[in-house]
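Quick start: what a row looks like.
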Amino acid sequence: MSDSAPRGEKEKVIVPEALAEAVIRGEITLGQFLNLSNTQLYAWADKAYQLLQAGSSQQALQIFQGLVAASPTDAVFHAQLGATLMTLERFDEAFDAFRLALQFNDGHVDALVGRGEIQLRRGNVPEALADLSKAIQLDPGLKRRATQRAHATLRTLKQQADQVKKSR
């Protein structure tokens, strides 16, 4: 047998008190505490995105929740968490995730579109139009899928409004 802990006993991890307190006070993120680089975090985000696209929403959710915990001010992770929650039809939680993403980056196109879509679902048309329009202003070439959706949604709403006007 080796010098390791006896079988069945877990090895204790000793964390310097100052480091633990820094995490608790919010001076460092959990990701920094775990010594995870942005490259590593974004590699996990890419994996979660692939899982989401493949229909494994629950697995993607777990990863994005972990990424938000590891890097709580990263707008991308909050926005992707919101998108994942939307696929699970957890709209209130998704709205909160998009709101947080926009708190950290008020020009995050995906978060604007996601929040706008939820606003529209809730019947908050002026707020939805504002978010969707702002997203398109930020990506006028419609390079992102989200802004393509926003453009299609706005076009459909305009057509519906035109039909209502004609019927009056």
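That is the whole record. The longest helix spans residues 145-167. The radius of gyration is 21 Å.
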